[in-house]
Amino acid sequence: MHNPDTYPNHHRSESSDCTPAVYRLGSSSCVPQHPESPGAVRSGMEAALSALERVGFDEIGGVPYLAVTVSSVGSFLASEAKVSEGSAIAYLIAPPLESVYALDAALKSADVKLCKLYAPPTETNFGGGLLSGTQSACDSARDAFARAVAEVARQPK
Questions:
Q1: What stretches of 7-139 adopt beta strand conformation (E)?
Q2: How far apart are CA 118 and CA 145, in angstroms?
Q3: Do the bridges between strand 63-70 and strand 22-23 make them parallel or antiparallel, or are there none, so unpaired?
């Protein structure tokens, strides 16, 4: 493990910028600025692995779902959602019935726009979408999506 004092601007931050469900992908607090140094590369890999450990499907009543706010998208998600790099998005995925119901709830809950629809059935038999808006609007949509998935899980008939 590298010494953070050697590369003071390249250590992984434990600040709220990289907390679960809200990520600043590509920000200096999660990704090193100078990846050419071995310590910076190691630090970047540690930050990426840490983020991967926090991002994952949640489960309510046996129903898995993914509801994440990305506060600052990089080039790949920006291209997928057709938004500018640095924009906030809500990344929402669930089983087919739950995804359609929960996306509807998410869209009605906040001032967000549906940028990409993953209409079921998909290759994974899940559905969902990418919503854009302010970070707080994406947070509200994400929370509404999770609540709607939970509602369907509690009353599956």
A1: 22-23, 58-60, 63-70, 88-94, 113-118, 127-133
A2: 15
A3: parallel
- The pLDDT tens digits of the residues spanning 79-100 come to 999 999 999 999 999 999 999 9
Torsion angle (degrees, nearest 10) of CA 78, 84, 87, 91: -20
Quick check: helix, strand or coil at residue 14? coil
The verdict on whether omega for the bond into residue 32 sits within 30 degrees of 0, i.e. cis, is no
According to CATH, where is 3.30.70.1710 located in the chain? Answer: 58-154
pLDDT one-digit tens code per residue, 125-155:
999 999 999 999 999 999 999 999 999 999 8
**If we measure between CA atoms, which residue out of 91, 31, 27 comes closest to residue 55?**
91
Question: CATH fold of 58-154, please?
Answer: Alpha-Beta Plaits (3.30.70)
User: Does the pTM of the predicted model rise above 0.85?
Assistant: no
31-61 confidence digits (pLDDT tens) = 444 456 887 777 777 777 776 677 778 888 8
